[in-house]
Amino acid sequence: MQEILLDEFLKATLKEDLGRGDLFARILKEDEEVKSKIIAKEEGVFSGEIYIKRLCELYSVCVEFLAHDGEEFCKGATLLYLKGKRSTLLSLERSILNILAHSSGIATLTRKFVKKLEGSECTLLDTRKTRPLLRVFEKYSTKNGGARNHRLGLDDCLMLKDTHIKGEDSLKELIKSAREKIPFGVKIEVECENLEQAKEVLEARGDILMCDNMPLSMIKEVVELRDKISPSTLIEVSGNVELENIKEYAIKGVNAISSGYIIHHAVWIDLSMKML
Known about the structure:
Layout (H helix, E strand, L loop, with lengths): L1 H17 L5 H4 L5 E8 L3 E2 L3 H10 L3 E4 L6 E2 L4 E8 H31 L6 E3 L9 H11 L12 E3 L1 H4 L5 H11 L6 E5 L2 H9 L4 E5 L3 H14 L4 E5 L7 H4 L6 E3 L2 H4 L6 E5 L1
Parallel strand pairs: 6-11, 7-8, 8-9, 9-10, 10-11
Antiparallel strand pairs: 1-5, 1-12, 2-4, 3-5
């Protein structure tokens, strides 16, 4: 199933660029077999290997990876070699570069966040703040940077946010009702903005309590409440988390810090293909 989804993504990517066919192929005198390489014009963390490997399989191109998913590379490094028909390599060039540049950009920024958390007990999580139709691709990229994936969609974890809670008489009753209606084993996470909400969630034995945009002093109080009322409840910190301040939130007792920043603020890595 995963391979089918991967193939659909790659074929759609190529269709977007090729349209009715690469015009250069019409003027190509001889379609000989050639070699090329992808080089890095800046340092970063490599990501996109499984996409490029499958793309090359689909279009009969031989590929040799010198860098692999999750590995750091330096400026000027050769990341991979390609071998195939000249027309094919030229037609695939932009799609290959786009996939690698975007994915590696996310992995590179994610790695910077992960390094900031070294020495703490916190795990870095991504979010659902992804570009439409690119969620799997972008979450794959954060994973290569060292983050852990949060929920992929609305069907694998029930998260009760302020928009869900608004209008409900009792947060505890809402959690109790959810336990009875959602599949067994599915986790319930609740977004809390204050200590009153946090206490209700803990008393209801919520699986994950998200401290949303809370000041550090309040987060510390939530940790203390958790330890007294419901030690099994995980605490996640979210909201306005950036590279400059993430270390401040990595206090003892906080299990995870989630950030959409690692995706929506990632900058593409500058890569280039050269013919050999």
